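Lecture 7, part 2: worked example. A protein chain together with iron/sulfur cluster.
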Amino acid sequence: MAEEKETKSIDQGTLELIEKAAKEGVNTTFDRAESIKACPIGSVGSCCKHCGMGPCRVPLPKGKEETPEDKKKRRGVCGATAETIAARNFIRMIAGGAAAHSDHGRGVAELFLEVAKGGAPGYEIKDEQKLLQVALDLGVEIGERSNNEIAADIGRIALGEYGKQAGELITLRKAPLKRQELWRKLGVAPRGIDREIVEIMHRTHIGVDQDYKSLLKQGVRTALADGWGGSLMATDLQDILFGTPAPILGQANLGVLEEGEVNIIIHGHEPLLSEMIVTVAQEPEMIKLAKSKGAKGINLSGMCCTANEILMRHGVPIAGNFLQQELAIVTGAVDAMVVDVQCIMQSVQTVAECYHTKIITTSPKARIPGATHVEFDEHDALKSAREIVKTAIENFPNRKGNIHIPDNKTDQIAGFSHETINYLLGGMFRASYRPLNDNIINGRIRGVAGVVGCNNARTKHNEAHITMVKELIKNDVLVLTTGCNAIACAEAGLLVPEAAKQFAGKGLAEVCETVGIPPVLHMGSCVDNSRILIAATAMVKDGGLGDDISDLPVAGAAPEWMSEKAISIGQYFVASGVYTVFGVTWPTTGSKEVTDYLFKDMEEMLGGMWAFEPDPIKAAHLMIAHIDKKRKALGIDQARERVLYDMDMRRELDAV
Ligand code: SF4
Ligand code: MSK
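Predicted complex, written out as structure tokens:
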């Protein structure tokens, strides 16, 4: 039993709850990952189901190299080749991911416009400085106009970017100039966000685009529309509405649940309603109501990226990441789990039925049969939030008594937005990335890695995340993190300044100690990967490390990815010039040509490329090798040796 447990997570509390679920006969994703074998076609070929003549499977020949004759036969009923099928499937993943991020961004833009027009009571513009910055970015007149007038123009322009038909996205201008020129030259500068996503769906319909290179190019254009468009605007507008994150202390892991309090978990991705729930949960009448039901108070916590959003701005603790969502309910202490969109397992409802937990869906786009639905009304968000909090409180007396909350939680410092890093490194009056660049040039920091992405039930929970991040920081690579990787790092105690001394290499530890930062910087949720793009751009602009993102000693990774959003994120990192390594599995192994194009040719085109390596130590060393390659190209690979010269060596040099 002990051996079996160890294969499922590196986290003690998670293992305890997997065992509790098993004892109580509750089926979880960990069980299903064992009983449902992944369809083998993913690793031995490709499969298309884009029309009623299929599904068409085009497997690789068994146990031998593919010959040109084999290749001719590897076609669907319509004649589509294995390459076309692999590329179509890959970019449909990008379309799915970009749609999810961008629809999130659209929702924020719609609310933003309502707030500016005074139609969304309870919300206000919290960050005036960022409002003005975004106004400048989008070319909105500032003058003597009120914040609401400026915001209304920003909201209208942002919404327009989704449906724009021609030209290019305004926010592409935030990228380094050389990068923008490259995108234009290659014809991959996105026009409108929705247009690029729709075009993928059109091109991948039977009988349309049947050239894998052309298909993959549209994948690049759409991913750029996500990273530098929809996601970036979601981050910017959320910062204006809810405040730009600054370093804040919080806690993480299932141990943040409180047995004596009404536990409400906010799960999903959009902070629009959860911001209001944070406010309402602190209202004296709500606390009084909770006490009248026998609870000591109300304990709010988060799950997945909604968790990251409310942690970054309010210090609300995080109960767990993707693979811990069912287990939180298995504690028996969750009175309500409030969900919006993305990464919510449908099985939270079936698990909840074994306990007393109420699953409350809130988005008209995401319903779950059996769940309670309280639709988020942005025109009266406080009312929706109060109804939800009340539902949770009323449910507190229904607990069944079989409660077990693991005793594990860790401290974490989150809130490292681009603006914060700028300020922390350079100070209020000379905010800049100069000290970071200087420390990269002098070799104390070897490079920077963005490590992000999901959990995947096909691998041991959090193991690859933590193994990779520890290996990187041990080798003096500063890690920027978002999403479920950030939560894994928090749970492993890597998001506190003391972690630098314990886990980081000497150079990185020295810098972290001087600035007072952890060696792993939590930058937010999945849409906040745009913050990493902006940080990379700031490094380029500060000088000394080349004139494009592809010149920087940086790399990206998603060691436990599973969602289509991760593929879109990976592709926009690659298209921005970043070497990006994914773990677990790779979706185009059914076609050598398509895989080679992504893994090799893209570097020539874009300066960034994909790689696949499921072993997290090997993957970390692929990233370090890339970082070293870039250091060499910049001529800063010898910097370390320079500082090691002692007096004798200097005298020797003088004598020459
Ligand atoms: Fe088969 Fe072609 Fe239809 Fe795909 S589009 S299912 S390859 S016939
Ligand atoms: S929540 S997309 S499992 S990171 Fe953003 Fe985690 Fe991946 Fe969802």
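Residues 48-51, 53-56, 76-78, 80, 85, 206 surround iron/sulfur cluster (ligand 1) (CB under 6 Å). Residues 26 and 351 are 7 Å apart (CA to CA). Keep this in mind for problem set question 3.
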